[in-house]
Hints:
By secondary structure, the protein is α+β, with helices and mostly antiparallel strands. The chain contains three helices and four strands, in the order E-H-E-H-E-H-E. It has helices spanning 21-27, 34-39, 64-72, and strands at residues 2-9, 30-32, 54-60, 77-85. The protein has a four-stranded antiparallel sheet with strand order 2-3-1-4. The N and C termini lie close together (5 Å).
Amino acid sequence: MMVVFEVHLAPDAGPVELLSQETLKETQAQVMTLDEAGKVGFGGLPAPPAGVDVRLIAVAKRDAGWVQKRLDANEGVAGYKVHEVG
Length: 86
């Protein structure tokens, strides 16, 4: 089972590092734009509100808590939704 975080970036956040290289390596999380996600088969999520920059983070369910803590501490994140897939 996987968890997909639908991350809404803060307005005017600029380039945001959502997860450190260490976290990406340890969890094997994939950070994608909506276009990138669609190309690899992640679809079916509702369109984001107008003007909201969204990233998707796909990660194994066992690592979801770790990723969630990182997102909660990231000032570039305005909010997120969690979706379980598979």
